[in-house]
Each structure stands twice: as structure tokens, then as C-alpha cells.
Amino acid sequence: MDSIGILEARQKQVIEKKAGESQPEIACDTTSLSGSVSQRACVFCGSRVVLYPVADAIHLVHGPIGCAAYTWDIRGAVSSGPELHRLSFSTDLHEMEVIYGGEKKLYSSLKELIAQYQPKAAFIYSTCIVGLIGDDIDAVCKKVEKETGIPVLPVHSEGFKGTKKDGYKAACFSLMKLIGTGSTEGISKYSINILGEFNLAGEAWMIRQYYENMGVEVVATLTGDGRIDAIRRAHGASLNVVQCSGSMTWLAKEMEAKYGIPFIRVSYFGIEDMSKSLYDVARHFEDRPEIMEATKKIVSDEVTKLYPSLQKFKKALQGKKAAIYVGGAFKTFSLIKALRSIGMSVVLAGSQTGNKDDYNRLKEMCDEGTIIVDDSNPVELSKFILEKEADLLIGGVKERPIAFKLGVAFCDHNHERKIPLAGFEGMYNFALEVYQSVMSPVWQFAPRKGGAL
Amino acid sequence: MKHEHAKSVTQNACKLCNPLGACLAFRGIEQCVPFLHGSQGCATYIRRYLISHYKEPIDIASSNFNEETAVFGGSHNLKVGLKNVSQQYKPQVIGIATTCLSETIGDDVPRILREYQKEFKNGTPMPLLIHASTPSYQGSHIDGFHAAVHAAIKTLATKGQKQEQINLFPNMVSPADLRHLKEIFADFEIPLMMLPDYSQTMDGGPWAEYHRIPPGGTPATAIADSANSRASIEFGSTIEANKSAAHYLDVMFGIPAYRMALPIGIKASDRFFSLLETLSEKGRPEKYDDERRRLVDAYADGHKYVFEKKVILYGEEDLVVAITAFLREIGMIPVLCASGGKSGMLKERIAEIVPDMEELGIKVRDGVDFVDIEDEAKVLHPDLLMGNSKGFTMSRKNEIPLLRLGFPIHDRFGGQRMHHLGYRGTLELFDRIVNMIIETRQNASPIGYTYM
Questions:
Q1: pLDDT digit string (tens) for B368-387?
Q2: What radius of gyration, in Å, describes the C-alpha atoms of chain A?
Q3: Is A126 on the interface with B (CB under 8 A)?
Q4: Tell me, what's the pLDDT at A23?
Q5: What does the DSSP 8-state code read for residue B160?
Q6: Between these two residues, A245 and B199, which has the higher pLDDT value?
């Protein structure tokens, strides 16, 4: 087989870290190259992932059936109560509506759903075609809002109008309309919102518990286990704690501008970052030293409990090499640290939506020879996994078969996972999952490990 | 909540969109990259959906529309995309399917492809370009599947020397079914042109190095020769003539077309095997007599478990028709035959197989979603649900066991290796049905029987 090249138009989005010399900055923040088989989805996807976990609202996808069908119950975002988010609603547009407009169908669909499910709010996602046929979804939303008395929020997520990141913004824009409409009475001065935590496998519950044990009130989680009423009073919190910075930094900045709420960026993956995300909040409330004291105790208890249990994994995994390709770049920072803590190095680090700052930081963090890549594709990922002899790939559903085909272990760090990987407990799960996949005896049969083809 | 009256919204759809089927079918052509002309999301979502069932890499390229493309047309993006795919994958074929976006802006794809072929005439070897029109606002995934097969035949079939081979258009069946069909033809010693054939591309072995395109699939040259075959066999009960590849070859090249239901159950399999006997002018190999005998024997051994058990059956219309025929020959009653598809032919086809459907209380509904089906389930109280894994939500809520078959199966392992067709596939289905009923009874019994 001839060697795999990188498409000319993509070469600036791939760099190999070299020591000593100043390297050109990685190109990023662009739309995907046509024909490159990007792992990204679209604007709609960005909006859908951000709002998905809001469990007491209906999520109606305005467009042909595909967009709703492919996102039905797609994420592992769990709810402690209502589960409207796990249903899939579509206006299922047909040819006639494409020609004559879909507003009528949107209106009657909304009325039917609101009557049937009595939701606290409704999100209406526009898809590609709605952007073309020119349905005035804002007007329909306004009308239904008036008639039903619940917030009916348009999300302008036409697939082709930008990248996934623009979808994040469109979702945050809708959230901004809700925030500020609820009462902030009784909210403590020592209070936060958890932003960019989607309660996959119950992670937000764990995080929330840590903060509450520190003596900090959590006003709203956006959007994990999300509730409309909580989001409405989110402006009453004293601090926004932002994870998954790609999707929620915009919202945090808007809230800072409008309500004067400062924000910090955190990550809940790995011991180091998890501890830091608790300490940073405690430091913010330094006028109440009890919070810091409680935090120290929590971290110390958790780490004491966790550390010995990781040693078995570390011993087995020492010297193994990992490749990381995930949605947001911020997660890669934590993963690199987490992998190092169990003895592994990183030979490839990439993301779908990282920006310049993210990649510069990645470059600083990574070892020499590490490939850093923006908006990659299966061909490139495979090339580097093989060339760098990775033992593990961390990614999502679309990356999984690449790893398994090549006889490489895999850890799902995306929205579909069913096991919490955040928090101290999550670090144990993460190490266990990596261990179980990397150390499996099945790889002895893989051709690249000498198995017969 | 009643849903019998006209309603606007679709809840938990029992269908997928047109381009998904096209991508799968294109995946069954050798050295072919499926290419969606539309937004990046379509390709990515469809890849994700297919991967969760087949557990195989499936690269689908996209022309990646942006706002300018939507305003000024997709010509530039499509050409750049084709060029990049050619460079990165070195395919022999690119299967281009449209989406709601490119169809709505009215891109003239055949013209763009002609221009592309002219502009890059002296470049790298030009892949064959097949274009299927698959707007997501029409039909469902099965229409896209047939559209891609039809387009491949229409584009590639070329008159030449008469050949001994037979064309087989197997419909959207599992890789295991495709392998079984190939085995049957080989045993009959009939040369076969089967389209599509994703038996290997969607269920293949490990790789020592990265394959840009996985091995397997029907070669373009074989597809070209479909115009010279002795006959065409097409599985499907609701494929309109103008969407049928077999019909096209009949009209254009005089290739006799044998269009029949998917061979599920003894009677339908008998019809298929006797057609092969006629076409090959020899008896079926002993192996298949054995398979048939084992199936008849199993029917006898298991008949009491299944008799007059009520089933709600859903899925693509052709699958529903074929499974209905099978259920009737083992005495089960498909109280509801449902599909998210809407060819308009479902009821008629089922009435042909089950003339006493009204007496038996068999209901047929097309164009339904899972909430409609669930509403029916609450009234009909079936013993079993049968269909793809998307029925799990209602299965769990209403405590009705679900027998998974067809596509997609996202919550169980090995959906791609499940058989449905022929005596062998029928036996596998029958075993699973009987076992599910036994298991339900065993679990429900307070005694804990160890013989069932």
C-alpha cells in the first residue's frame, strides 16, 4: 500500500511538535474541507447537544425526518425526573411543505405536543431546509408562546450556517432568553451555576454533590439534568463554573456582561483537574474559609481513597501510548494529564472544534513528536495511529471502529457513554476502562500484533 | 391520547431519511466511496447511525455546504469534494447522493458531474460517478437504498456479450443474508451479479494497515454486465416499477425480471429455490433439502409455543410483508403490520398473502411512528413485538418482549450477522421466536421450571 498523504488544503491543520524551533501556528476555526470526511457534524448538532439534556422541555426538530431520527435518545444524559428529552419530535417535512412552507405544520405540531406532554418550555430547531424555504419560525414560536403561556424558543441551527460551534452559540442564545426570567429570591451569596456539564451517566450529580458538600449552593446545571425553572433563575448565582468551554464560554461571557457574574473554566476529568475545579471555586469564596477547609477535606479523602486503586492500572499501562481525538480541545488537556497519571504518554492529540489558544496550550503540554490535529478524518487518524504505534484511541462512536479494525484499544469519551468518567470516581472508571481495553488478550490476534490476516 | 385522527407531528420516527439507504447501497459497490451532497452533519449522523449497527468504519464524504454554497449553488463544493475524495481514497467509483438541501436549491447534479469530468479529464484516473437523487423530504431510507441501486444500474449497465450470470437485487438485508445468498448461487453453480453486496465491506475482518476503502463489494465491471445477464431476481413487494433496477433492465435490455417477496418462511423460500431450479435447469443441492427438512421439523417441534400468539410487527414495508407471510405459516397472528414507509401498497400486498386478514383481526398501518404503534399496542396487547431495536422504548414501557430483527439493531451485539432469508434464515428466526416465548414464560413462572 502506498503511504497515506494529507490533503494539501488540510496540511496547515496538522503539526508535529518539535523541540527548540518555533513552529507555525495550527490552522483552525474554519469550516471543514469538502470531501475530507470530517468527523464533525453540523450547526444543528451543536445546538442539539447543548440543549439535549433539558429534560422538562420538548425538543422539536423542524425539518425532514433524518435530523430528528438520528438524534433520538442519542446521548447518555440522564434525568432525575421528567424525560422529555429522550423523545424525538419532528415536523417530518415533505415535498408539499418544502414548496408551500412548513409554518402551518410547525404550528400544529407544537400545539399537539404541548397539549400532550405539558412541558415547561419548547425548543424549536431549524434545520437546513427551513433556512432555505424561509419559514418564519420566530413568528410561529411567538404565537404559540402567547397561546400556551410557556416559553417557546426558536433555535437557529440550520446545518449549513457555519460549524458545530455556531450551533453551540445558537443554543446558548436560546438559553440567554430564559435566564433572568425567574426569581432569585433565597439564593445564597455562595452559589454557582455549573455550565457545560451534561450529566452523562450522572456525572453532574457527582459534581454537584462535591460542591454542595463544600457548602456551595448550585443554582442551575446547564444543561445536565436541566430544568427550565432552574435555568430561569441562573442569573442569581455568584459564579459560573464552565466546563466544555467550547460550548458554554459564550453563555458565560454574556452572563458576565449582562448580570455581572464572573466565570472560571474548569475540567472534571482526572485527579489534578478535578481537584483544581473544586479549589478554584473555594478560592473564589475566600471570605468564607469554611468552604476551603471543606474542599481540602473532600479532595484529601477522595484522593486517599482513589490513589491506591490506580496503582494496579499504572503498573500495567506504564509506557503505553495513547491517541486522543475528541470534540472539544479543552478535554484533551485533562486527558493528557489523566493518562500521564496512569503511566501513559500521548502520541496524537486532536479535536473537532479547538481554537488557536487551545492548540497553543496543547503544543506546550505535549511531548516532542506528538501529532496535533484539528478537524481530522479517518484516513489521517489511522495513518498517525499506525505510524506512532498507539496502543489506545480515545474518541467517540465514529472513531471506535477505526481503532478496533487496526487492533488498537479504545475508550469512549463521548456523549454516548454509560459510565461516568468525571470526578474522582470517574477517574477510577476511566483507568479501569483503559486498562480493560489495552490489556485485553484479544489484540494478540490483530494482524499488526502478528496475528494472521 | 388518540392518534387515529390526522396529526402533524412525528414522534419517535419508525423510519430514517432517504440518503442513509443510498449510502449503505453505495457501500456495496467495490472500491466505492459514498458522497453526500449537502451539509456536513448528514454524512456524520448517518455514519454514526450505521456504525452503531455494523460496528465497521464507514467513511462518507460530504460536500460540506456553507451559506455561500446554499445561495450560489453547490457546484464548486461538489467538484472540490470529488477531487479531494479522489485524491485521498483513490476510489474506482464515487456514489453521490443528494440531500434535502441540495435538492431544494435545485442543483443540477448531472450537469455538475459532466463539467467535473470534462475539467479533470487529464488528471488522475477518473472514478466512475453514480448519482442518486435522494431528497430527505421524500420517502424514507428504503427509497434511497433502491434509488442508489437503480442509479448504479442505469449509469453502468452496458449492452455486450450475453452472459450466463443472473442479477440479484436482494433489498436491504444483513451482511449475513448476503453471504448466504452468494453461497446458494455458488452451490447452484449460477454465476451471480448481486447488487449491492456489502457482505464484506460492512462485516469484514481486521486490517494490518488502513484501508481507505474496505475490500469487498460488487465490481463496477460486473454491474456493467448486468445488461447481459440471463435474468434478474429482485426481492421486494412494494418497489414501484420506475424504482426497480430489475424492471429497468427488463425494459432497456430485455432481461427477464423475476420480482418476488423476500424469501422468508418455507413457502417464500420454496418459490425462490424453485426459481433457481428453473433458471439453472437442475435440482437444488441436497444441502438445501436438508435445511428445508430441518426447518419443517423445527416447525413441528415448536408449533405449540407460537400458535395464535399475537405479534406487532414493524419495519420497512418489504420486510413486514415477508415476515407476515412467515408468521402466518407458523400460526402466529400479526395483529398489527406497521411501517414508517408509505408506498401505498402495504395493505394490498398483505391482503394477498392473508386473504382472511379481517377475520383474523390483522391491522395494517403505513406512515406510522413509534407512538402510533405504542398506542395500538396498548389496545391490542400483543405477546411479542418484532422489528428493529428502536422499538425497545415501547417494549420496556409496556413490558412486551421485543424480538430484534432487520436494521438498526443498536442495543444488541451481532445485528449484522443475523440471518433472515431462506430456510436457514427462517430457522434462525423461528428458534429465536420460540426461545423468546419460552424465556418469557419461564421468567414469569414462580416455579422455575428447568424443562420448558
A1: 999 999 999 999 999 999 99
A2: 23
A3: no
A4: 78
A5: -
A6: B199
- Torsion sign across C-alpha atoms B361, B365, B368, B369: positive
The yes-or-no verdict on residue A428 having pLDDT over 60 is yes
A438 neighbors A317 (Cβ within 8 angstroms): yes
All structural domains of chain A with their residue ranges: 8-30+316-444, 43-170, 191-300
- pLDDT one-digit tens code per residue, A186-226: 999 999 999 999 999 999 999 999 999 999 999 999 999 99
A350: β partners: A325, A373
Percent of chain B with pLDDT over 70: 98
Residues of A in contact with B41 (CB under 8 A): 41-45, 67, 159
How many C-beta neighbours within 10 Å does residue A427 have?
Answer: 29
Longest dimension (CA), chain B: 77
Coil, helix or strand at residue B291: helix
Longest dimension (CA), chain A: 68
Give A90-109 pLDDT, tens digit per residue.
Answer: 999 999 999 999 999 999 99
Helices (H), B354-421: 357-360, 370-380, 392-398
Domain range list for chain B: 18-204+212-260, 286-444
CATH (residue range A191-300)? 3.40.50.1980
Q: What is the pLDDT of residue A417?
A: 86
Task: Note whether B57 contacts A: Cβ–Cβ < 8 A.
Answer: yes
Least confident of A245-249, A374-378, B102-106: A245-249
A247 in Cβ contact with A49 (< 8 Å): yes
Q: Is B85 on the interface with A (CB under 8 A)?
A: yes
Mutate to test the interface with A, among B98, B136, B140, B373 (most CBs of A within 10 A): B136
| Grid cell in block for residue B440 | 418469557
ipTM > 0.90?
Answer: yes
Chain A: closest CA distance from residue B248 (Å): 25
Going from the C-alpha of B37 to that of each of A46, A160, A276, the distances in angstroms are: 20, 12, 46
Residues B289-313 pLDDT 10s:
999 999 999 999 999 999 999 999 9
Q: Which residues pair with A371 in a beta bridge?
A: A16, A348
Shortest distance between the Cα of B294 and any Cα of chain A, in A, equals: 35
Is there a shared CATH topology between the A8-30+316-444 domain and the A191-300 domain?
Answer: yes
From the number of C-beta atoms within 10 Å of its C-beta (0-12, 13-18, 19+), residue B228 rates as buried
Class of domain B18-204+212-260: alpha beta
CB A119 within 8 A of CB A56: yes
| Order of strands, sheet of B93-98, starting from the edge strand that comes earlier in the sequence | B61-62, B32-37, B93-98, B128-132
Mean pLDDT in residue range A130-152:
96
Residue B19: its chain A contacts at CB < 8 A? 66
Question: Smallest Cβ distance to B10: which of A40, A65, A446?
Answer: A65
Fold classification of B286-444 (topology level): Rossmann fold (3.40.50)
**Cell numbers found for residue A50:** 447543548
Rounded to two decimals, the pTM is 0.96
Q: How many residues does chain A have?
A: 453
Share of chain A above pLDDT 90, in %: 82
Domains B18-204+212-260 and B286-444 share a fold: yes
A8-30+316-444 has which fold?
Answer: Rossmann fold (3.40.50)
Q: Judging by beta carbons within 10 Å of its beta carbon (0-12, 13-18, 19+), is residue A448 exposed, middle or buried?
A: middle
Q: How many CA atoms does the CB half-sphere of B146 hold within 13 Å?
A: 24
Residue A223: its H or E element: strand A217-223
Task: Report the CATH superfamily, name and number, of domain A43-170.
Answer: Nitrogenase molybdenum iron protein domain (3.40.50.1980)
Condensed to tens digits (0 to 9), the pLDDT of residues A17-58 reads 887 767 788 898 888 889 889 888 899 999 999 999 999 999
Distance CA B207, CA B213 (A): 11
> Residue A414: pLDDT band by 50, 70, 90 thresholds?
confident
